[in-house]
Amino acid sequence: MGMAGLTKRLSFDTPNPNRYQSGMGNELFPSGPWTGFYNYSPQDKHRMDLDLTFAGGKMSGDGNDDVGRFAISGQYDVKSLECWWTKTYVGAHSVFYRGFREGKGIWGTWEITPHNHGGFHIWPKRLGEGETETAAAEQAKPVEVAATEPVTAPTK
Predict the structure, then answer these.
(1) Which residues pair with 102 in a beta bridge?
(2) Backbone torsion region of residue 56, taken as left when φ is above 0, otherwise alpha when ψ lies between -120 and 50, otherwise beta
(3) Rounded Cα distance, 121 and 61, in Å
(4) Rounded to an integer, what distance in angstroms lies between the CA atom of residue 96 and that of residue 84?
(5) What residue spans define the domains of the chain?
(6) Which pTM value belongs to this model?
(7) pLDDT tens digits, 19-67
(8) Alpha-carbon distance 20 to 63, whole Å?
(9) Which CATH architecture has domain 21-137?
(10) CA gap 123, 103 in Å, rounded
């Protein structure tokens, strides 16, 4: 048997460890639009929109937030539900993310330096999933209003 036959036979006979996980991986880590937020503290939410691709344990994509446009490059593991990636702003700094797939999204932490870090939550943006969270992340800040004329109590 020649080398071509051996290669063909080996690739055919070697089991693919991911073949049973591919369907589950696509369901847990669906490629496409994602949305969510990052924060410095629990009350502080900064919206981000991402377009992510998950394939064969690798994740990639791009997106934007209040800092600017960014690229995503990282990995995910269907068995442990863990993922980690680097978010690199165009012409600027990078941020390391590590999270776990739970419920309707990925929760975790981000870090630029040990003194510059926070949390995040992202979720697939499909069929209205996560709309409540998106609305909460976009909640308007209170506006101060000043009266232009003196205010008096109504008379009876």
Answers:
(1) 105
(2) left
(3) 17
(4) 7
(5) 21-137
(6) 0.67
(7) 333 445 678 999 999 999 999 988 899 999 999 999 999 999 999 999 9
(8) 30
(9) Beta Barrel (2.40)
(10) 9
From CA 32, how far away is CA 40, in angstroms rounded?
Answer: 26
Would you state the structure tokens that stand for residue 105, as one six-digit string? Answer: 């999204």
How much is the pLDDT for 126? 73
**pLDDT per residue as tens digits for the range 59-114:** 999 999 999 999 999 999 999 999 999 999 999 999 999 999 998 899 999 999 98
Please give the structure tokens belonging to residue 37: 């937020």
Closest CA to 85 of 111, 65, 67, 64: 111
Sorting pLDDT into bands at 50, 70 and 90, what band is 17? Answer: very low
Sign of CA dihedral 53, 72, 116, 46: negative
